[in-house]
Amino acid sequence: MVDERGAESVDAVFANAVRDARLAAGMSQDDLGTRMARRGFDFHQTTIAKIERGARRVTVGEAAELADIVGIPLAAVLERDPASMPAKRAQLEAKTRAVIIDLVALEDRARDARVRLDELLQLAVEFDELAGEDLVEWRGERMTAGTFLRDLLSVLDVDALSDWDRFTRSAGGAAMLHHFGLDRPAAL
Questions:
Q1: Whole-angstrom Cα distance, residue 162 to residue 51?
Q2: Structural domains of the chain sorted by starting position, each given as residue range(s) with its CATH number in brackets
Q3: Model confidence over 4-22: pLDDT tens digits?
Q4: Which of 162, 141, 138, 159 lies closest to 149, judged by CA?
Q5: Residue 178: other Cβ atoms inside 10 A
Q6: Residue 158 and residue 169: Cα distance in Å, rounded?
Q7: For the whole model, what pTM was predicted?
């Protein structure tokens, strides 16, 4: 959709912003439609699909709710000058939100890695019990599998995200996550 100046229409800009923010949040069209329905709008997955492809316009009330759900500032989306302060802020907030989503995913993966490494250490203990006094050559030295793995893990920083985890559980970190629509569950 292009306006008389050859610029993308406000409707298209809004639809693209909603789609981009929805995808960045890992939200499906069905999820967004359901959340709009909970807020009293007659929305479904097909409604979101039509909006995103420009086949359906939205009312001001719908636009405000959609922007709120996907975490984008409506005023910044409607700003026509991409160099304006609100537009720049919206771009920065969208990029920041994407980085935070990645950090949260990394935190989950690090937690999984710690569990798997504990399992690996337990297997090394079992291996050592089977080997008894018979040491195995690891890195050119004779040592137990457990000693080798503990040495190896001492140089890996699997807990590098523990500071991030503490921060996101603090009042300031929780407020930051909430600002970007990324409230974490109470207990992980």
A1: 41
A2: 10-80 (1.10.260.40), 93-179 (no CATH)
A3: 544 467 888 889 889 988 8
A4: 138
A5: 12
A6: 19
A7: 0.47
To 10 degrees, what angle do helices 10-24 and 45-52 make? 130
Cβ distance 44 to 90 under 8 Å? Answer: no
Nearest to 66 by CA among 29, 18, 103, 110: 18
Q: In the chain, which ranges are E strands? A: 136-138, 141-143
> Residue 7: CB partners within 8 Å, gap ≥ 6?
80
Give bridge partners of residue 138 from the DSSP assignment: 141
Cβ atoms within 10 A of the Cβ of 185, count?
Answer: 5
Q: What pLDDT score does 171 carry?
A: 73
Give the integer Cα–Cα distance in Å for 24 and 4: 31
